[in-house]
Amino acid sequence: MVDIREVTAKICGRRVVGTAISEDQCNVRDSRRRMNAAGCTAVALVLVAACADPTGPGRAGCPAEGVTLTLGFYPFFEPVSYTSSDPQAPGSGRHLGYEADLLSAVEVTGLSFKRQPVAEWPGIWLLPATPDYDIAGGGITILESRTVNEAGERAVAFTSGHIAFRQSLLVRSEDAARISAYEDLTSAVRVGALPGTTGEARLLEITGIVDSTGALRPGTRVETPRGTLVADGTGAFTITAAVVSPALLGRTRLLPPAEGMPEIVYLGRETGEGELLTALSDGTIDAVARGEVGNGEAAHVSGGAFVVTALDSLAEYGGFTVDADDRALLACLDERIGWLTDDRRIGYAEWRADASVFERRAVRWPGSEAP
User: Fold this and answer.
1) Domains of the chain
2) pLDDT tens digits for range 200-227
3) 43, 56, 186, 272: least CB-packed within 10 angstroms?
């Protein structure tokens, strides 16, 4: 027997930290999760905790009771997924927002989460493919392109969508007439975006700055920490919601190749989308490109200073990601999300009107001991 308390693996697709595991039971699908033979000795109890298929209503395929799943969440997407930035505020550091309440309701149905804020947005959806996380969330738009890793291998799977998104523009109230549609975005307009988001990707698509593959139009200038680059129209200068060419990492500004396209200013890498709102308020940018939910909330709390103008016609859905191999956990979460959202009949608008909507539905979960 070998003590492996410091070794983490995924067994049956689920993250397990154990005291022992046998070599013939150590089935870890890639080199990042593969434990060497010396560390693969152990006890069946670990497998029971990871792979148990407990009986009872709604428990099939779910983690055994007592197993805690590690969730990595983006903490800067208010009101969907965020933490308090004020250390003196009640609940500081606690996961807050729409997704936080939905997951708390999931816990009422018998699951348990350890919630870890993850400040870096790009690639957050791939965290469940690593040994340290079981689930990732934070307002992640469901895209097939986000399910594969850099090698093009399927790494994660999305749960069913639980929140609907549309991209939009947020502007200062005095600019609402000047910037009322995406067609109004010319080279004289500076639009702020968080890199690696669908807000950025859809903005570039709608305005024609990228082609259908995400390649920047020839002549587009991109300011980076390594200097200004000029796109040549090839795949070497690509930006999508899932993939960015290495040369464009850390981009700070994008200058379009034509008068009918806006300048893009990149903000929020370290402190989140609040940086975009500050820049809009002080005039550094003229618009913010992001989802209608976030922009709508910002307009609501601005006291009339901001308004949402252009709305994208494309509907998107947000979900959580899990390891692609963990089909049991995916089914377990989908069953609960489907119940709590009443198959998408309950969503953001209903939660905004009554933040207890998921909690109240959770107590009616089949098998719940609550009255």
Assistant:
1) 8-51 (no CATH), 69-164+317-362 (3.40.190.10), 167-311 (3.40.190.10)
2) 999 999 999 999 999 999 999 999 999 9
3) 56
